[in-house]
Automatic annotation (TrEMBL), chain A:
Gene3D superfamilies: 6.10.140.1520, 6.10.140.200. Belongs to the Mediator complex subunit 7 family. GO terms for molecular function: transcription coregulator activity. GO terms for cellular component: core mediator complex; mediator complex. It is found in: Nucleus. It comes from the Eukaryota. Keywords: Activator, Nucleus, Transcription, Transcription regulation. This is Mediator of RNA polymerase II transcription subunit 7. It comes from Gomphillus americanus. InterPro entries: Med7/Med21-like (IPR037212), Mediatior_Med7 (IPR009244), Mediatior_Med7_sf (IPR044888). Its main location: nucleus.
From TrEMBL, chain B:
Component of the Mediator complex. It comes from Gomphillus americanus. This is Mediator of RNA polymerase II transcription subunit 31. Gene3D superfamilies: Mediator of RNA polymerase II, submodule Med31 (Soh1). Signal peptide: none annotated. One of its GO terms (molecular function) is transcription coregulator activity. The gene is SOH1. One of its GO terms (cellular component) is mediator complex. It holds the Pfam family Med31.
Amino acid sequence: MAASEEDTTVLNTPFLNPPSFWQSFTTENIEAYRVLKAEANGSSFTVPKDLENLQPPTLPENGEYTTFGEKRSLDTPLRDLPEETPVLRSAASKTASPQHLLNLTRSMMLSYLEMLHIMAINPAPPIYGVKWEDLRDLFRNTLHGVNSYRPWQARNALIKLLERTRDDARTEIAEIQGLQMKVDDTLRQVMQNCEEIAIGSEDKLDHDADPMLGIERNHGLVNGTTLIGEIDQHSKNMWTLVNNDADE
Amino acid sequence: MTTTTTPTRFELELEFVSMLASPTYLSYLASTKILQQPQFVAYLDYLQYWTRPPYVQYLVYPVATLHVLELLQREDFRKDILNPQVVSKLAEELLEGSKRRS
């Protein structure tokens, strides 16, 4: 259906061009879509045809889709062994036991050696063919056994992933707590220094003012410039501390 | 494509994000200067819906695809990928990642 012109341009490049949908992402379109979305306020809304490409496409029906010419489905059950292959499993359990897999591998090695032995004596296909078939059945059974572990593997991969995320979060929390303690220390130091200065100015006030008159002791006014200077210095120190930690 | 039906937008976009996992394809895209176009950058931002369910489960190679999609959101990466050294470094990184997981 595509125009022949388009075909030649596609063929001239070593790779496929990106789908043309990106051309719809103009500033105006994005803004229009944003307004529509804000108006809908979380509920579903109809998108005009020219803005269609700005929202994620609809999911394929039945979970079946084609990608790179290959039909895929989200739901891929474990296929049974081909009918002509004997099921080499004593236990009726769904997943093959590790011991069973190990046995299969050993049988494989033994069958291979037996086949080599037969071939060394008489390499005619009808004679070693029996062993050849044995080997094929063993391989199929092993593969089937390994595949039966897929749901288990998926679950364990997820558990590992979640554990890693949890550990990361814990390290982050510990780091934040460490930083908080540092900030607390600095703040305490600032408070202490303030108090010291305040006491100093109080002493000064005591000398100047008549205690009998009950003059309110306004420390900040007496020694204001020094106090503000000290606080500035401390807040500077604190910010360097915070910045250093953030850089780390 | 063997099928005669036209691929849906879902399928086209899925194939495109999957192709992003190829460093060679990225370097080709960078050479077309498309990565510097604001519309395309907005498109890359939009494509991030693939990082969320239910879309994420349709990806065939989720680790590589999502990693590159994340990198592509950064302006410095979009510029640096023109450099062949960065391309080979990324290829190594993706290969290492797949080895570690297996």
